[in-house]
Amino acid sequence: MANTVPSPPPTDTKVDYFNLPCPIPFEELHREAMMSLKPDLFEGMRFDFTKILNQKFSLNHSVLMGPTEIPSQSTETIKIPTAHYEFGSTFIDHPKLLLWGRILTDGRLNARVKCDLSENLTFKANAQLTNEPHMSHGMVNFDYKGKDYRTQFQLGNGALLGASYIQSVTQHLSLGGEVFWAGQHRKSGVGYAARYNTDKMVATGQVASTGMVLLSYVQKVSEKVSLASEFMCNYLSRDVTASFGYDYILRQCRLRGKIDSNGCVAAFLEERLNMGLNFILSAELDHRKKDYKFGFGLTVGE
Questions:
Q1: Which of these, 47, 92, 87, 102, lies nearest to 299 by C-alpha position?
Q2: Per the confidence metrics, is the pTM higher than 0.90?
Q3: What does the radius of gyration of the chain's CA atoms come to, in whole angstroms?
Q4: Which tens digit of pLDDT belongs to each residue from 134-156?
Q5: Residue 34 vs residues 105, 230, 246, 259: alpha-carbon distances, Å
Protein backbone atom coordinates (compact mmCIF):
# COMPACT_ATOMS: atom_id res chain seq x y z
CA MET A 1 0.00 0.00 0.00
CA ALA A 2 1.41 3.41 -0.98
CA ASN A 3 2.55 5.70 1.80
CA THR A 4 0.13 8.60 2.34
CA VAL A 5 1.65 12.06 2.89
CA PRO A 6 -0.20 14.02 5.58
CA SER A 7 -1.53 17.38 4.46
CA PRO A 8 0.10 20.46 6.05
CA PRO A 9 -1.81 22.07 8.89
CA PRO A 10 -3.86 25.17 8.01
CA THR A 11 -2.05 28.48 8.27
CA ASP A 12 -3.01 30.61 11.25
CA THR A 13 -4.25 33.95 9.91
CA LYS A 14 -5.31 35.49 13.17
CA VAL A 15 -4.72 39.22 13.52
CA ASP A 16 -2.12 40.27 16.05
CA TYR A 17 -4.01 43.12 17.70
CA PHE A 18 -0.99 44.01 19.84
CA ASN A 19 1.23 44.69 16.81
CA LEU A 20 -0.85 46.83 14.44
CA PRO A 21 0.66 49.66 12.34
CA CYS A 22 -0.04 53.32 13.05
CA PRO A 23 -2.56 54.71 10.51
CA ILE A 24 -2.13 57.94 8.57
CA PRO A 25 -3.83 61.12 9.88
CA PHE A 26 -7.59 61.35 9.35
CA GLU A 27 -7.21 64.51 7.24
CA GLU A 28 -4.85 62.65 4.82
CA LEU A 29 -7.09 59.66 4.10
CA HIS A 30 -7.21 60.42 0.35
CA ARG A 31 -3.65 61.70 -0.10
CA GLU A 32 -2.63 59.13 -2.75
CA ALA A 33 -5.68 59.97 -4.87
CA MET A 34 -5.17 63.72 -4.41
CA MET A 35 -1.66 63.49 -5.89
CA SER A 36 -3.19 62.54 -9.24
CA LEU A 37 -6.58 64.24 -9.07
CA LYS A 38 -5.58 67.56 -7.45
CA PRO A 39 -2.34 68.83 -9.05
CA ASP A 40 -1.24 72.42 -8.44
CA LEU A 41 -2.88 73.87 -11.56
CA PHE A 42 -2.43 77.54 -12.47
CA GLU A 43 -3.02 79.94 -15.36
CA GLY A 44 -0.51 82.32 -16.91
CA MET A 45 3.20 82.53 -16.13
CA ARG A 46 4.84 81.52 -12.85
CA PHE A 47 8.44 81.84 -11.70
CA ASP A 48 9.67 80.46 -8.37
CA PHE A 49 13.15 80.98 -6.96
CA THR A 50 14.43 79.41 -3.75
CA LYS A 51 17.67 80.54 -2.15
CA ILE A 52 19.06 78.22 0.52
CA LEU A 53 21.07 80.26 3.04
CA ASN A 54 22.03 77.36 5.31
CA GLN A 55 20.80 73.91 6.32
CA LYS A 56 17.82 75.37 8.22
CA PHE A 57 16.87 78.66 6.56
CA SER A 58 15.81 79.51 3.00
CA LEU A 59 14.20 82.44 1.15
CA ASN A 60 11.57 82.18 -1.57
CA HIS A 61 10.60 84.57 -4.37
CA SER A 62 7.60 83.96 -6.64
CA VAL A 63 6.11 85.91 -9.54
CA LEU A 64 2.71 85.04 -11.02
CA MET A 65 1.22 86.82 -14.02
CA GLY A 66 -2.15 85.71 -15.34
CA PRO A 67 -5.88 86.36 -15.38
CA THR A 68 -8.03 86.22 -12.26
CA GLU A 69 -11.69 85.24 -12.28
CA ILE A 70 -14.15 87.71 -10.80
CA PRO A 71 -17.68 86.93 -9.59
CA SER A 72 -20.40 87.38 -12.19
CA GLN A 73 -24.12 86.70 -12.38
CA SER A 74 -23.85 85.52 -15.98
CA THR A 75 -22.84 82.00 -17.03
CA GLU A 76 -19.73 83.30 -18.80
CA THR A 77 -16.41 83.44 -16.96
CA ILE A 78 -15.05 86.97 -16.58
CA LYS A 79 -11.29 87.39 -16.10
CA ILE A 80 -9.06 90.38 -15.52
CA PRO A 81 -5.26 90.47 -15.95
CA THR A 82 -3.32 90.50 -12.67
CA ALA A 83 0.26 90.15 -11.46
CA HIS A 84 1.53 89.22 -8.00
CA TYR A 85 4.88 89.02 -6.29
CA GLU A 86 5.27 86.76 -3.27
CA PHE A 87 8.11 86.78 -0.75
CA GLY A 88 8.58 84.03 1.78
CA SER A 89 10.92 82.32 4.15
CA THR A 90 11.17 78.82 5.57
CA PHE A 91 12.91 77.64 8.71
CA ILE A 92 13.26 73.89 9.31
CA ASP A 93 14.84 72.42 12.41
CA HIS A 94 14.33 68.84 11.29
CA PRO A 95 12.36 67.04 12.49
CA LYS A 96 10.94 69.04 15.41
CA LEU A 97 10.19 72.54 14.11
CA LEU A 98 8.89 74.09 10.88
CA LEU A 99 8.21 77.80 10.36
CA TRP A 100 6.76 78.89 7.01
CA GLY A 101 5.60 82.34 5.89
CA ARG A 102 4.52 84.05 2.66
CA ILE A 103 3.40 87.64 1.94
CA LEU A 104 1.94 88.95 -1.33
CA THR A 105 1.82 92.39 -2.84
CA ASP A 106 -1.98 92.52 -2.42
CA GLY A 107 -1.55 92.37 1.36
CA ARG A 108 -2.30 88.70 1.99
CA LEU A 109 -0.15 86.98 4.60
CA ASN A 110 0.05 83.20 5.04
CA ALA A 111 1.86 81.50 7.90
CA ARG A 112 2.28 77.95 9.18
CA VAL A 113 3.88 76.45 12.27
CA LYS A 114 4.58 72.79 13.03
CA CYS A 115 6.25 71.83 16.28
CA ASP A 116 6.77 68.42 17.87
CA LEU A 117 6.06 68.97 21.55
CA SER A 118 7.00 65.37 22.34
CA GLU A 119 7.57 62.10 20.54
CA ASN A 120 3.80 61.60 20.19
CA LEU A 121 2.27 65.10 20.42
CA THR A 122 2.49 67.65 17.57
CA PHE A 123 1.27 71.24 17.49
CA LYS A 124 0.27 72.77 14.14
CA ALA A 125 -1.11 76.22 13.33
CA ASN A 126 -1.89 78.07 10.12
CA ALA A 127 -3.30 81.52 9.44
CA GLN A 128 -4.26 83.72 6.49
CA LEU A 129 -4.61 87.46 6.99
CA THR A 130 -6.14 89.72 4.33
CA ASN A 131 -7.27 93.33 3.95
CA GLU A 132 -10.82 92.20 3.16
CA PRO A 133 -13.20 92.17 6.13
CA HIS A 134 -14.24 88.78 7.54
CA MET A 135 -11.86 86.93 5.18
CA SER A 136 -8.97 86.30 7.59
CA HIS A 137 -8.92 82.95 9.33
CA GLY A 138 -6.73 80.80 11.55
CA MET A 139 -6.61 77.21 12.77
CA VAL A 140 -4.77 75.40 15.57
CA ASN A 141 -4.34 71.61 15.66
CA PHE A 142 -3.06 69.21 18.30
CA ASP A 143 -2.17 65.78 16.86
CA TYR A 144 -1.46 62.77 19.05
CA LYS A 145 0.16 59.67 17.54
CA GLY A 146 -0.32 56.39 19.38
CA LYS A 147 1.07 52.97 18.62
CA ASP A 148 -1.86 51.96 16.41
CA TYR A 149 -4.08 55.05 16.38
CA ARG A 150 -4.10 58.81 15.80
CA THR A 151 -6.30 61.53 17.22
CA GLN A 152 -6.59 65.25 16.45
CA PHE A 153 -8.23 68.26 18.06
CA GLN A 154 -8.92 71.46 16.05
CA LEU A 155 -9.73 74.98 17.14
CA GLY A 156 -10.42 77.77 14.62
CA ASN A 157 -11.87 81.24 14.38
CA GLY A 158 -15.63 81.53 14.12
CA ALA A 159 -15.97 79.22 17.15
CA LEU A 160 -14.94 76.21 15.06
CA LEU A 161 -14.26 73.05 17.06
CA GLY A 162 -13.34 69.68 15.64
CA ALA A 163 -11.98 66.31 16.69
CA SER A 164 -11.06 63.13 14.81
CA TYR A 165 -9.87 59.63 15.66
CA ILE A 166 -8.60 56.79 13.46
CA GLN A 167 -7.68 53.28 14.58
CA SER A 168 -5.95 50.38 12.83
CA VAL A 169 -8.22 47.33 12.97
CA THR A 170 -6.01 44.94 11.00
CA GLN A 171 -2.66 45.20 9.23
CA HIS A 172 -4.38 46.80 6.23
CA LEU A 173 -7.70 48.19 7.46
CA SER A 174 -8.25 51.31 9.57
CA LEU A 175 -11.51 52.91 10.72
CA GLY A 176 -12.11 56.42 11.98
CA GLY A 177 -14.57 59.18 12.71
CA GLU A 178 -14.78 62.94 13.16
CA VAL A 179 -17.07 65.52 14.74
CA PHE A 180 -17.17 69.31 14.32
CA TRP A 181 -19.11 72.32 15.56
CA ALA A 182 -19.18 75.70 13.76
CA GLY A 183 -20.51 78.06 16.40
CA GLN A 184 -20.66 81.11 14.14
CA HIS A 185 -22.96 79.35 11.66
CA ARG A 186 -24.68 77.15 14.26
CA LYS A 187 -23.87 73.98 12.34
CA SER A 188 -22.53 70.63 13.49
CA GLY A 189 -21.75 67.31 11.88
CA VAL A 190 -20.21 63.88 12.25
CA GLY A 191 -18.36 61.72 9.76
CA TYR A 192 -17.07 58.20 9.39
CA ALA A 193 -14.28 56.78 7.25
CA ALA A 194 -12.61 53.50 6.30
CA ARG A 195 -9.29 52.93 4.56
CA TYR A 196 -7.84 49.70 3.18
CA ASN A 197 -4.31 49.72 1.80
CA THR A 198 -1.76 47.21 0.54
CA ASP A 199 1.48 47.54 -1.39
CA LYS A 200 -0.45 47.73 -4.67
CA MET A 201 -3.68 49.59 -3.88
CA VAL A 202 -5.47 52.01 -1.57
CA ALA A 203 -9.26 52.13 -1.17
CA THR A 204 -10.93 54.81 0.96
CA GLY A 205 -14.53 55.61 1.82
CA GLN A 206 -15.86 58.59 3.75
CA VAL A 207 -19.39 59.73 4.65
CA ALA A 208 -20.60 62.72 6.68
CA SER A 209 -23.90 63.97 8.04
CA THR A 210 -23.53 67.09 5.87
CA GLY A 211 -24.50 64.90 2.90
CA MET A 212 -21.00 64.28 1.57
CA VAL A 213 -20.00 60.81 0.34
CA LEU A 214 -16.44 60.40 -0.98
CA LEU A 215 -14.97 57.19 -2.39
CA SER A 216 -11.47 56.90 -3.85
CA TYR A 217 -9.33 54.09 -5.22
CA VAL A 218 -5.66 54.11 -6.25
CA GLN A 219 -3.99 51.24 -8.10
CA LYS A 220 -0.19 51.15 -8.24
CA VAL A 221 0.48 49.64 -11.65
CA SER A 222 4.27 49.80 -11.22
CA GLU A 223 6.87 51.76 -9.30
CA LYS A 224 6.38 54.70 -11.67
CA VAL A 225 2.72 54.49 -12.71
CA SER A 226 -0.39 54.96 -10.54
CA LEU A 227 -4.04 55.20 -11.55
CA ALA A 228 -6.67 56.88 -9.37
CA SER A 229 -10.44 57.23 -9.40
CA GLU A 230 -12.83 59.20 -7.21
CA PHE A 231 -16.58 59.31 -6.73
CA MET A 232 -18.01 62.27 -4.80
CA CYS A 233 -21.65 63.05 -4.21
CA ASN A 234 -23.90 64.98 -1.88
CA TYR A 235 -27.14 63.14 -1.23
CA LEU A 236 -28.76 66.34 0.06
CA SER A 237 -28.05 68.56 -2.96
CA ARG A 238 -27.94 65.68 -5.49
CA ASP A 239 -24.54 66.78 -6.84
CA VAL A 240 -22.43 63.93 -8.23
CA THR A 241 -18.92 63.98 -9.71
CA ALA A 242 -16.73 61.10 -10.86
CA SER A 243 -13.04 61.57 -11.69
CA PHE A 244 -10.23 59.46 -13.12
CA GLY A 245 -6.56 60.41 -12.90
CA TYR A 246 -3.04 59.16 -13.49
CA ASP A 247 0.44 59.78 -12.11
CA TYR A 248 3.38 58.85 -14.35
CA ILE A 249 6.96 59.33 -13.11
CA LEU A 250 9.68 59.24 -15.78
CA ARG A 251 13.41 59.63 -15.36
CA GLN A 252 13.41 63.40 -15.95
CA CYS A 253 9.76 64.40 -15.54
CA ARG A 254 6.48 63.70 -13.80
CA LEU A 255 3.12 63.82 -15.58
CA ARG A 256 -0.22 63.97 -13.76
CA GLY A 257 -3.70 64.47 -15.12
CA LYS A 258 -7.41 63.85 -14.67
CA ILE A 259 -10.77 63.85 -16.39
CA ASP A 260 -14.14 64.13 -14.64
CA SER A 261 -17.82 63.74 -15.38
CA ASN A 262 -18.31 67.53 -15.57
CA GLY A 263 -16.34 67.68 -18.82
CA CYS A 264 -13.15 69.01 -17.21
CA VAL A 265 -9.78 67.70 -18.42
CA ALA A 266 -6.50 68.70 -16.74
CA ALA A 267 -2.80 67.87 -17.05
CA PHE A 268 0.27 68.95 -15.10
CA LEU A 269 3.87 68.35 -16.24
CA GLU A 270 7.04 68.88 -14.21
CA GLU A 271 10.27 68.34 -16.14
CA ARG A 272 13.75 68.48 -14.62
CA LEU A 273 15.97 70.41 -17.03
CA ASN A 274 19.03 70.48 -14.80
CA MET A 275 20.02 70.26 -11.18
CA GLY A 276 17.79 72.77 -9.37
CA LEU A 277 15.94 73.83 -12.55
CA ASN A 278 12.43 72.55 -13.35
CA PHE A 279 10.05 73.46 -16.18
CA ILE A 280 6.29 73.37 -15.47
CA LEU A 281 3.32 73.12 -17.83
CA SER A 282 -0.30 73.33 -16.67
CA ALA A 283 -3.54 72.96 -18.64
CA GLU A 284 -7.21 72.73 -17.67
CA LEU A 285 -10.11 72.53 -20.13
CA ASP A 286 -13.64 72.96 -18.83
CA HIS A 287 -15.79 72.18 -21.86
CA ARG A 288 -19.09 72.72 -20.07
CA LYS A 289 -18.22 76.27 -18.93
CA LYS A 290 -16.04 76.92 -22.00
CA ASP A 291 -13.23 77.96 -19.67
CA TYR A 292 -9.70 77.10 -20.82
CA LYS A 293 -6.61 77.66 -18.67
CA PHE A 294 -2.99 77.29 -19.70
CA GLY A 295 0.13 78.05 -17.74
CA PHE A 296 3.90 77.59 -17.85
CA GLY A 297 6.62 78.31 -15.36
CA LEU A 298 10.13 77.76 -14.07
CA THR A 299 11.26 76.64 -10.64
CA VAL A 300 14.85 77.47 -9.67
CA GLY A 301 16.37 75.97 -6.53
CA GLU A 302 15.61 72.85 -4.53
A1: 47
A2: no
A3: 23
A4: 889 999 999 999 999 999 999 99
A5: 30, 9, 10, 13
